[in-house]
Amino acid sequence: MPHKKTVLVVMGVSGCGKTAIGQLLSKKLDRPFFDGDDFHPESNVQKMKSGTPLNDEDRKDWLITLNQLCVAHRENGAIIACSALKKNYRSLLRAGMGDSIAFVYLKGSFELIKARLEQRKGHFMPIELLQSQFETLEPPSREITVSIDQTPKKIVSEVLKQL
User: What gap in Å lies between CA 136 and CA 145, rounded to an integer?
Assistant: First the structure.
């Protein structure tokens, strides 16, 4: 992979397409895919299911676990879907990675993502928490940024071009 970016963290608010784009990038780059949601402790899942947004303390151990996953895959690479909403969350994920990590920010409007969430079934994250995610979001300024108002194939193509 160019520029030694072996681990890509696909980031953004809930419903922006992290899992779908991450899986496509995984196939394209022949890297394993991990969904950060699968690493949440049960207490976080229950908190979100109840409609309560996670705070920094709730996210800390989860982000440390995902950082350990990044470090474990630094040599051979991985694609990880993780909201990574704040700059300090991205710093935790980046620890010990040097130049081996890049973030892919899937950017979309509140209206577009809300419409997507209204169609999504079976996810623990209720649509009522979307506003809190946008309020928490600190969009990255120096990461790969791709608009989600295009097809998944075009999004992946754009990510690969920016890499």
Answer: 18
